[in-house]
Design a protein that fits this description.
Chains A, B: Keywords: Amino-acid biosynthesis, Cytoplasm, NADP, Oxidoreductase, Proline biosynthesis. Chains A, B: This is Gamma-glutamyl phosphate reductase. Chains A, B: Belongs to the gamma-glutamyl phosphate reductase family. Chains A, B: One of its GO terms (molecular function) is NADP binding. The structure is a homodimer. Chain A is of the alpha/beta class. Chain A has two domains: 236 residues, 3-Layer(aba) Sandwich (Aldehyde Dehydrogenase, Chain A, domain 1), CATH 3.40.605; 144 residues, Aldehyde Dehydrogenase, Chain A, domain 2 (3-Layer(aba) Sandwich), CATH 3.40.309.10. The first copy, chain A, contains 15 helices and 16 strands. In chain A, strands 10-9-11-8-7-12-13 form a seven-stranded parallel beta sheet, with helices on both faces. Chain A has a four-stranded parallel beta sheet with strand order 5-4-3-6, with helices on both faces. Chain A has a three-stranded antiparallel beta sheet with strand order 1-2-16, with no helix packed on it. The termini of chain A are far apart. The interface between A and B is large, with 70 and 70 residues. Strand 16 of chain A pairs parallel with strand 13 of chain B, so a sheet runs across the interface.
Chain lengths: 414, 414
Amino acid sequence: MTFQDQARAAKVSATLLRRLDRAAKDEALRVMADRLRSATGEVLEANRADLDRGRAAGMAEGLQDRLALSEERVESMAAGLESLAGLADPVGEVVRGWTTPQGVRIEQVRVPIGVIGIIYEARPNVTADAAGICLKSGNASLLRGSSSALESNRAVIGALRAGLADAGLPVDAVNLVEGGHDITDEMMHARGLVDLLIPRGGAGLINAVVTGSSVPVIETGTGNCHLVVDADADLAMAEKIILNAKTQRPSVCNALETVLVHSEIAAEAVPRLVGALTGAGVRVHGDERSKALDDRVVPAGEHEYEAEYLSLDLAMRVVDDLDAAIAHIRQFGSGHSETIVTDSLAAARTFQDSVDAAAVLVNCSSRFVDGSEFGFGAEIGISTQKTHARGPMGLAEMTSTTYRLNGSGQTRLG
Amino acid sequence: MTFQDQARAAKVSATLLRRLDRAAKDEALRVMADRLRSATGEVLEANRADLDRGRAAGMAEGLQDRLALSEERVESMAAGLESLAGLADPVGEVVRGWTTPQGVRIEQVRVPIGVIGIIYEARPNVTADAAGICLKSGNASLLRGSSSALESNRAVIGALRAGLADAGLPVDAVNLVEGGHDITDEMMHARGLVDLLIPRGGAGLINAVVTGSSVPVIETGTGNCHLVVDADADLAMAEKIILNAKTQRPSVCNALETVLVHSEIAAEAVPRLVGALTGAGVRVHGDERSKALDDRVVPAGEHEYEAEYLSLDLAMRVVDDLDAAIAHIRQFGSGHSETIVTDSLAAARTFQDSVDAAAVLVNCSSRFVDGSEFGFGAEIGISTQKTHARGPMGLAEMTSTTYRLNGSGQTRLG
């Protein structure tokens, strides 16, 4: 089957999906979960084949870890599908509504987008997550996983499609897209067949899709996240938030990468924070001013302010004032999550009004910027672009809207 | 000044615009309106130069009409800016908000997008409209008008920028982008400088921007709009709505292009509707079945179902049933506005649940699908894409959102 045939079949299934009520979708998700559980043996066998192939080709250990499945991981994928069944249906939600002077009733209602393509890297658990989120929001999915996870993805998608068939839904609602780089290129130019593309993975993948696609794309985020220690900061609070945001899970996009310290509080703050950070195993890369205040600081070059370390490394800079901190964030920030720690109401307001990012935080950890912490129940990624969706994307962000106009013969007068 | 310099200046001004309160923006709009009124003489002189150049180059009369300004048109541009000052500010609107179990308060708030590029064809009145809508929503604008309107646009933008200066705002909030096709190409690839591009004009322009741009684009619409006369239709109502939707203003995207008649009612409906339409000067291009019912019908080829006539022409087809009508719309519709006339609640519901378009109407005219009829007070176009905004776009659609998190030291636990 060519990609075009596959996409056309997905589009046909999407016309059926958009009319399903919640009960039908939830039942399908539960049957898919059952089928995935029953297929645990095949999935793990396929995963071993991927891992063997990867090791033979010299795959890095970190990638092997991300690729590796276990009984627990398959169970967690199945449980994820079941938990989607417990969430409210975004389709049909009336966003707003009003009646015109002539008596035409207008409602703006959430509807499925149609066919969503997801291009992602090694983790096979994304396969079940993405398929489930798309199905729950009434969308057909074209899942373009990494070639290194091909056997695993085939086994997972085989189980999910068997579940769809058991539930009486079209199997083409969920599709694995196989083939070389030319197929990714076809996906990016399948206007009229693919309604939206979401790349999930490293900056290279995301950039290639965002710049190369003529299908609308949602850019999911690299996170170069900053925290400003204001002159009026409670340093105990700053220390606690910085440690949490940097060390709780350093490899994710909402982890902290740079601390900007207001010069008025630097003499006290820098040694205290550097001490706490180095004590927690964090290497602090600082500018001249912070290094002068604590010699555990290693020198930072300007390129380090651009780095998304995703490791136990942190950049530190002493800035003259709040405006300088905001200017630094404007220059180096990736528009993900930016934080200030301050007791000053004026500083908090200036910061939240001035900084242009998906999330702007006062006195709490950037680790909260996440679909599960937001209570969305499911997350397809965190958007760092400004159109369609910005910040954590749950089920509602996987919908479009339509205007329904209901009249009784009205015509336009002027 | 190169385009890059101009875009950078716009971006700097956008950081100031995002912090303006409503009063400052409204005052600027009023001063800009005054300056435009005072410049009426210069604007009309520049417009005459454009028209002379156009006539010398053999510009079509229709284009000349769209290019031509008059005292009344300039006054209406100025009044448009003043009416924007009377609209609520979309920036700062809290879309939703909640408190997490740990007590972090989360608000999703509307913020400006940043720098918006608008690429449009001959009408110079779009220049003032677009500049005003962008300013009111806190965005800087890069306005890429047609070369045929260059002198007019220079004069209009000169007046608007003088108004910005008088009001103490950065003049780079509103910019005319001049130069050849290579500049349009630069706009389409100015990632990091231009946040959003909106093409307004014919299908060729829109398609070129949508497929060629790596900056996010909102596709504004070509409208191949259908109306279904259901078996249970009130024919008097159908006739009235069809005449309004086809003839009130045939050249716009929400005008009706195709009527699909349910076979059960065709013998009565076709002659009645064809009679009314031909009586109103409309040429009806029909399939064999409708032609057999009324010989005033001229034969339609399949390509005619794809046509956006934008004239006093209409395609007509007799369909077996509602499903066939929906299938026709799925095949030929442009996703703009689709209507059913019916007294059947079941048919109305099936139609609104099945048809995938920006607006789906029951028993009223597609001419209502318009920002002013929706009560938006201003409209930048009608989106026919499914992401970001769909349907008429007012001030709210010219914003992004940000999440503001306010805590008191909370850190993430798990």
